[in-house]
Amino acid sequence: MHLADLLGWAGAGALLLAHALVTHDPEQAAGGRYLLLNLAGSAGLAASGVVHAAWPSAVLNLLWLVLGLTAFRRRRPAEPD
C-alpha cells in the first residue's frame, strides 16, 4: 500500500470519527477535537485524491480543508471553569 493510500484511509477514518463525534454530541461541532479531525481527514483525502488524479475528490477535500482552517482560526478559546 502506498503512502497516498494510507493518507486516504486515515483521512476517511478521521472524517467518520468527526461525524460520529458531532452526531453523538452536537455541541462538539465547535470544539477543537472535531475541527482537528475534519482538518486531518480532509487533508488526507485531498492528498490521496491529488496523487491518484481523482480531481473531484481532491477539489472537494481541499475546499473542505479551507473551510475547516477558517473555522479553526475563528473559534473561541474554551471558557475556564
From TrEMBL:
<keyword id="KW-0472">Membrane</keyword>
<keyword id="KW-0812">Transmembrane</keyword>
<protein>
    <recommendedName>
        <fullName>CBU-0592-like domain-containing protein</fullName>
    </recommendedName>
</protein>
<dbReference type="Pfam" id="PF26604">
    <property type="entry name" value="CBU_0592"/>
</dbReference>
<keyword id="KW-1133">Transmembrane helix</keyword>
<feature type="domain" description="CBU-0592-like">
    <location>
        <begin position="4"/>
        <end position="74"/>
    </location>
</feature>
<dbReference type="InterPro" id="IPR058058">
    <property type="entry name" value="CBU_0592-like"/>
</dbReference>
<feature type="transmembrane region" description="Helical">
    <location>
        <begin position="44"/>
        <end position="67"/>
    </location>
</feature>
